[in-house]
Amino acid sequence: MGLDPISNIAGAVKGIIDKFVPDANEKLKMQLELATKEIVQEHERLLAQANTNLEEAKNPNVFVSGWRPAAGWVCVLGLAYTFLLHPYMVWISTLASFAAPPPIESGLLQYLLGAMLGIGGLRTWDKVKGVETKGMSLK
User: Residues 122, 92: one domain?
Assistant: First the structure.
């Protein structure tokens, strides 16, 4: 079961169908209808999120449209500190005999960067191949 209420309700309904519907064909028909409704609802949810993202990207206010680039810059700054600045600071602190600054956990930053680059890469690939995402042009 998923964390969202639709999956929880669908799981409960599937259990009820399994217990109380004796005819195998009728059971399969009901499960197919339920699965179709789940897919349609998930599609509608994803479409609504895509439309929200599109409207956010169009907004001239940097606090609305700039949160994704800000997340990218935070990620880049964190990775620059982790892989460029911190090793030199540790080396200098060892030579100068003072405490080295603490490292930061870079696993989450790498995960965020990978996700952002992957999504951006997929969109770039679509543009190169001439594929236009219906209703989501960001030209």
Answer: yes
pTM of the model: 0.44
Structure tokens belonging to residue 47: 């479409």
Contacts of residues 70-73 at CB distance under 8 Å and 24 or more positions apart, as own/partner, are 71/112, 71/116, 72/113, 72/116
Question: Is 88 within 8 Å of 47 (Cβ atoms)?
Answer: no
Range of the domain at 12: 1-61
Structure tokens at 10: 């669908």
139 and 76 assigned to the same domain? yes
The reply to whether 73 and 39 lie within a common domain is no
Check whether residue 42 and residue 103 sit in a common domain: no
Write the pLDDT tens digit of every residue in 77-136: 888 999 899 999 999 999 999 999 998 887 887 787 777 777 766 667 677 777 666 555
Residue located via tokens 């500190």: 81
Are residues 53 and 71 part of one domain?
no
Q: For the purposes of burial, counting CB atoms within 10 Å of the CB of 32, is it exposed (0-12), middle (13-18) or buried (19 or more)?
A: exposed
- What would the two tokens of residue 25 be? 């064909």
Q: What is the pLDDT of residues 12-28, one digit of tens each?
A: 666 777 667 677 777 77
